[in-house]
Every structure is written in C-alpha cells, then in structure tokens.
Automatic annotation (TrEMBL):
<dbReference type="InterPro" id="IPR003742">
    <property type="entry name" value="RlmH-like"/>
</dbReference>
<comment type="subunit">
    <text>Homodimer.</text>
</comment>
<dbReference type="GO" id="GO:0005737">
    <property type="term" value="C:cytoplasm"/>
</dbReference>
<keyword id="KW-0949">S-adenosyl-L-methionine</keyword>
<feature type="binding site">
    <location>
        <begin position="127"/>
        <end position="132"/>
    </location>
    <ligand>
        <name>S-adenosyl-L-methionine</name>
    </ligand>
</feature>
<keyword id="KW-0698">rRNA processing</keyword>
<comment type="similarity">
    <text>Belongs to the RNA methyltransferase RlmH family.</text>
</comment>
<dbReference type="GO" id="GO:0070038">
    <property type="term" value="F:rRNA (pseudouridine-N3-)-methyltransferase activity"/>
</dbReference>
<keyword id="KW-0489">Methyltransferase</keyword>
<dbReference type="InterPro" id="IPR029028">
    <property type="entry name" value="Alpha/beta_knot_MTases"/>
</dbReference>
<dbReference type="Pfam" id="PF02590">
    <property type="entry name" value="SPOUT_MTase"/>
</dbReference>
<feature type="binding site">
    <location>
        <position position="76"/>
    </location>
    <ligand>
        <name>S-adenosyl-L-methionine</name>
    </ligand>
</feature>
<feature type="binding site">
    <location>
        <position position="108"/>
    </location>
    <ligand>
        <name>S-adenosyl-L-methionine</name>
    </ligand>
</feature>
<comment type="function">
    <text>Specifically methylates the pseudouridine at position 1915 (m3Psi1915) in 23S rRNA.</text>
</comment>
<dbReference type="InterPro" id="IPR029026">
    <property type="entry name" value="tRNA_m1G_MTases_N"/>
</dbReference>
<keyword id="KW-0963">Cytoplasm</keyword>
<keyword id="KW-0808">Transferase</keyword>
Length: 159
C-alpha cells in the first residue's frame, strides 16, 4: 500500500518533527509512506473573504499538481464524515481489498482547502468539529493511519 500525505506548510517545532518521524518509522512496516509538503501562501491576519479564497485557490493548485495518478483521495475537512478508529481501519481495509493500492490524504493550510481540492476528493474525512493546527493534524493523521493498520492486522494497540 502506498500512502501519500500532501500537507500545506512545514513543521517548525522539533518535538512535532520527532513525533512525526516516530510514526513514519512505525508505518514503514505496513506501507510506503510519502509526505509531500507544499509551501503555504503568506496571509496576513485580516484578509477579506475574497483574499482568503485566493490564498486557498493558490494553495489548492499546488496541492492538485502533487496528487499522484490513480490514487484514492481523502481530504481532511471539518465538514467531512467522522469515523471511529475501527471504522477508519475497516474503510482502509475495504479499499485495499477492492484493489486500491494508493491513497492520498490532504491536509490544507490554516484557511482550509480550495473548492477544487474538495471536489476532487473521493472521501471527506473529519477528525472533529474542532479546529486543529495543521501541523498537529499531520501527527494525529499519522497516528490514526498507524492505528488503522494495527487494528487491521489484529495487533494490540492502546484503546
């Protein structure tokens, strides 16, 4: 299984990079993982709605240019469907059984995802109605993907 994670922005905090590296190492037993970072657009605090859309569109074009061919696209969106860890694991397993061997998760920037990226997505996934920093979301996503594989394989993992 190939898993791509396209993210807007870089991780600056050392502790966050270390956590991400740990889950990358753990996941190497289960899949080929590739994290693709997209530069975020500079956006001052008080942007108009129109300017916010422009920023999301620019980031969206960069994201779309990095999506591999023939991949199942899962965008992380507050408005998306929520799953338990077991349900997410089952969903990933069902995709694999049905012949999907390439998945791409997309984490947008601080303003979210462009409509074009949302439209292109095969599954809109929400981890919560709460808003999380996209740097932290990367770590949470990796942990949940790891947990999904552990559940799939019937291996113990903290509940």
């Amino acid at each position: 299984m190939n898993i791509n994670i396209i993210v807007v922005g870089k991780i600056k905090e050392k502790y966050m990079r270390e956590g991400i590296q740990e889950f990358q190492k753990r996941l190497s037993r289960y899949c080929n993982l590739k994290i693709i970072e997209i530069d975020d657009e500079k956006a001052p605090e008080n942007l108009s709605n129109k300017d916010m859309e422009r920023v999301k569109e620019k980031e969206g074009k960069k994201i779309l240019s990095k999506i591999p061919q023939n991949t199942f696209i899962i965008s992380l969106e507050i408005e998306g469907k929520q799953f338990s860890s077991e349900e997410l694991s089952k969903r990933v397993e069902n995709l694999m059984v049905s012949g999907v061997n390439d998945m791409t998760f997309i984490i947008g920037g601080s303003l979210g995802l462009s409509e074009e990226v949302k439209t292109r997505s095969n599954l809109k996934l929400s981890f919560s109605k709460m808003t999380f920093p996209h740097q932290l979301m990367r770590l949470i996503l990796l942990e949940q993907v790891y947990r999904s594989f552990r559940i799939m394989k019937g291996e113990p993992y903290h509940k």
